[in-house]
Design goal:
With 171 residues, the protein is mainly alpha-helical. 67% of the residues lie in helices and 4% in strands. The protein is built from 8 helices and 2 strands. Strands 1-2 form a two-stranded antiparallel sheet. Strand 1 and strand 2 form a beta hairpin.
């Protein structure tokens, strides 16, 4: 349904870049969910890319459009440098790091940035296998993110807050 609304917005104002970005995101989602009723990636992702590029033609400063294009580059084109560039232009380096690590682990590889963790019963995060543990902080610094220890502290704090919220609900 969202795709139809964004297409209506494009028809109503062909110069409105955020509407094209919305079209791109809808097609990306449909292509990524082809197994559960979406569209075949070969059909959806070129549409997503075209819409993201159109949005950028209209407004090259639109962060959402750079993010839309970055997702296509990452999940369909498998062009990691282009994806990283677009995520950086969008100011969304953390999103890039998370998606990059997810893809690497899905492919049976080790993650680069350490964003994929599991939390034990005590609330301590455990980092899933890393490409190069000694270089993880320099990788994070290269894309403008804080050290892994800061991220793990935030994950632990979030888990603790979630635990407290659960206790309040069940008390």
């Amino acid at each position: 349904q969202a795709l139809g609304y964004f297409q209506q917005a494009v028809a109503a104002d062909p110069g409105y870049a955020p509407a094209y970005s919305g079209v791109a995101d809808c097609y990306s989602s449909l292509g990524a969910s082809s197994v559960v009723g979406g569209l075949p990636p070969r059909q959806a992702m070129p549409e997503a890319k075209a819409a993201a590029l159109k949005a950028l033609d209209i407004d090259d400063s639109l962060a959402e459009a750079h993010t839309s294009l970055a997702i296509v580059h990452l999940l369909y084109d498998w062009d990691l440098p282009a994806s990283e560039k677009e995520f950086k232009r969008a100011g969304r380096s953390q999103t890039y790091a998370i998606l990059y690590d997810e893809v690497q682990l899905e492919l049976g590889r080790r993650q680069r940035y350490g964003t994929q963790v599991i939390v034990d019963k005590a609330g301590e995060p455990f980092v899933l296998p890393l490409e190069d543990p000694d270089k993880v902080d320099s990788y994070l610094r290269e894309i403008g993110l804080p050290p892994l220890s800061d991220y793990l502290r935030d994950v632990s704090n979030a888990f603790y807050r979630m635990f407290l919220d659960q206790r309040m609900v069940y008390s």
